[in-house]
């Protein structure tokens, strides 16, 4: 009977651990070795810019080490460095315990204490083996140590995982990043990056533990393709060991609000911008856009006078830019383009252009397109001028002239300085259409 009870306890403990270890579909089963226990995301350091009081702010409270209470639960997730420098000691023997041996064990916080030789400890009971362990504070007192962001190495806060599972499982989200991850090993930490189109509608299929730095692993499924991918996310930041200024650059994607939206981003843009949704526009200049083909996103060059309908507009977190979701009216091909509705010049190379201002890139309506022949549109896309073009068509093809000249008979010229030092002279007749062109010095 005692043996049976012990086996039952062991099985329950294993089930508790396994419920936190979740994987995306189609992973390979491989053997786990303690020599290769790198956890996804460990080469990245999250950025802790202040979260707005949104879904995360309302539901996930940050607990500094000073505020920890008995019963708080954590999982041991050693990273590469932790396999060289042990975190915990056995409370019975005082000896260090290899971090790899404690991997995936659940530690329950049991307060802090001071030893007879004035060393402060942070105490735990392991839920899996019911043994007592402690983390010895390297220097100073507990009160000194707890005000920093260091916390206890290796520990991922499980209350964040439990709360996220309760609130998110089965929910529909929209992606806000292009880079996500899939698992490549069922029994290990193998993963690879995948590219996902922004504002893809997904459904949360599983929530588990990620890493100490990014404790909540959110697995989602593309509602159209059925493909799964995941992101390890920062929620409350309890014990994640990162400073607030480290959740920037590539690490910013691990902030939940930077990876997922609970609702479509169109509802979040201002009314002045949202009014453009549903409008027909055309490209005023050739520009790079992102499109999806053969299941992968790629950047393509879109010519002048391509006509689109704006299908949706999505905000970009902490930015003056928004993402336009565009559908080409002829081919029905879908594109995205990041633009700003604030008229400022961008110094440097942004998508191959010097400006990302909406008014520079796009014209509203179909007026110019209706009056332009297919042959003329081809010339405009090539940046050429031909006899019979109107002023509007010349502007679309080669832009504003550097200077103009007129004659007494009503004819006039537009003069363009070319990069080779020569001048392009576009000659207009009395009707306002091109009657000839010439190139001179």
Write a short abstract of this structure:
The protein has 441 residues and is an alpha+beta fold.
Architecture blueprint of SSEs:
Blueprint (H helix, E strand, L loop, with lengths): L1 H17 L36 H5 L13 E4 L11 E3 L5 E2 L8 E9 L5 E7 L5 E5 L5 H4 L9 E3 H11 L3 E4 L3 E5 L7 E5 L5 E9 L6 E7 L5 E6 L22 H4 E2 L9 H4 L5 E4 L3 E7 L2 E7 L4 E9 L5 E8 L5 E7 L17 H4 E3 L2 H4 L3 H8 L9 H8 L4 E4 L5 E6 L5 E6 L5 E7 L1
Antiparallel strand pairs: 1-4, 1-7, 2-3, 2-6, 4-5, 5-6, 8-11, 8-14, 9-10, 11-12, 12-13, 15-18, 15-21, 16-17, 16-20, 18-19, 19-20, 22-23, 23-24, 24-25
Description of the molecule:
Helix content is 16%, strand content 32%. It has ten helices and 25 strands. The protein has helices at residues 2-18, 55-59, 142-145, 158-168, 256-259, 271-274, 358-361, 367-370, 374-381, 391-398, and strands at residues 73-76, 88-90, 96-97, 106-114, 120-126, 132-136, 155-157, 172-175, 179-183, 191-195, 201-209, 216-222, 228-233, 260-261, 280-283, 287-293, 296-302, 307-315, 321-328, 334-340, 362-364, 403-406, 412-417, 423-428, 434-440. The strands form five sheets. Strands 3-2-6-5-4-1-7 form a seven-stranded antiparallel sheet. It has a seven-stranded antiparallel sheet with strand order 17-16-20-19-18-15-21. Strands 13-12-11-8-14 form a five-stranded antiparallel sheet. Helix 9 (374-381) runs parallel beside helix 10 (391-398). The protein is elongated, with a radius of gyration of 30 Å.
């Amino acid at each position: 009977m005692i043996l049976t009870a012990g086996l039952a306890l062991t099985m329950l403990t294993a089930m508790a651990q396994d419920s936190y270890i979740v994987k995306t579909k189609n992973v390979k089963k491989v053997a786990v070795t303690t020599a290769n226990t790198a956890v996804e995301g460990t080469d990245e350091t999250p950025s802790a810019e202040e979260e707005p009081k949104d879904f995360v702010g309302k539901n996930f409270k940050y607990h500094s080490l000073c505020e920890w209470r008995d019963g708080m639960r954590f999982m041991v997730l050693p990273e590469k460095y932790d396999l060289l420098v042990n975190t915990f000691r056995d409370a019975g023997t005082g000896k260090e315990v290899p971090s790899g041996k404690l991997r995936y064990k659940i530690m329950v916080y049991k307060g802090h204490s001071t030893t007879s030789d004035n060393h402060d400890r942070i105490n735990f009971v392991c839920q899996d083996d019911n043994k007592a362990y402690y983390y010895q504070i390297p220097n100073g007192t507990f009160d000194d140590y707890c005000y920093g962001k260091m916390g206890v190495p290796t520990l991922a806060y499980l209350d964040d995982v439990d709360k996220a599972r309760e609130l998110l499982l089965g929910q529909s989200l929209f992606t806000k990043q292009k880079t996500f991850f899939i698992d490549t090993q069922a029994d290990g930490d193998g993963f690879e990056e995948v590219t996902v189109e922004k504002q893809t509608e997904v459904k949360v299929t599983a929530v588990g533990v990620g890493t100490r730095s990014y404790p909540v692993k959110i697995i989602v499924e593309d509602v159209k393709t059925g493909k799964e991918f995941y992101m390890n996310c920062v929620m409350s930041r309890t014990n994640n060991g990162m400073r607030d200024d480290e959740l920037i650059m590539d690490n910013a994607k691990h902030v939940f609000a930077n990876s997922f939206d609970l609702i479509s981003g169109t509802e979040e843009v201002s009314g002045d911008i949202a009014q453009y949704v549903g409008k027909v526009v055309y490209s005023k200049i050739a520009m790079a856009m992102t499109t999806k083909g053969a299941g992968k996103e790629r950047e393509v060059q879109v010519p002048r006078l391509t006509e689109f309908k704006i299908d949706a507009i999505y905000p970009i977190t902490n930015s003056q830019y928004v993402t336009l979701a565009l559908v080409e009216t002829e081919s029905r091909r879908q594109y995205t383009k990041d633009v700003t509705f604030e008229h400022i010049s961008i110094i440097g190379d942004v998508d191959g252009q010097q400006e990302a201002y909406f008014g520079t890139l796009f014209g509203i309506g179909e007026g110019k397109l209706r009056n332009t022949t297919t042959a003329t549109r081809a010339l405009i896309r090539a940046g050429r001028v031909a006899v019979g073009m109107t002023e509007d068509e010349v502007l679309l093809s080669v832009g504003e002239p550097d200077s103009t000249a007129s004659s007494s008979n009503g004819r006039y010229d537009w003069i363009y300085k070319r990069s080779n030092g020569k001048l392009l002279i576009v000659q207009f007749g009395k009707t306002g259409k091109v009657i000839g062109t010439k190139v001179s010095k």
